[in-house]
Amino acid sequence: MSQSDLEESLSFVPKFDAAGLIPCIVSDAVSKTVLMFAYMNAESLELTLKTGEAHYWSRSRQSLWHKGATSGYVQRVVEMRTDCDQDCLWILVDVAAQGKGAAACHTGRKSCFYREVTMGDSGPVLTFKDSERLFDPKDVYSS
Fold this sequence. Notes:
mainly beta, Ubiquitin-like (UB roll), four-stranded mixed β-sheet, two-stranded antiparallel sheet, 3 helices, globular
């Protein structure tokens, strides 16, 4: 399929990288706030499409990851999009947390993107933004 055909096609043919992964940007379905970034492999993508709940591939654990299976912050997929050359996904989710408030980050925050990068006198520095914790990770992820 030519690049032009791919860009105009209605066929879903995701391009996985050499490691068999495709990047996935995750946003809140209502506010469009970016919640997190993760990777999917073919199996996690298939599970996501089949179940309507987000599944990812954890590179650090080398395993499938059903978002919210441990924490209760399950991500229900409202919409999934792919970019023009189908090498990146964007999913819009509703975080079903049984009345806990929607959190996507394992640190207990709504979004994994809770720090702003700015230039200080000595170089880049981080500043907390939207950093309120919605849950205590020690309570949720205790083993």
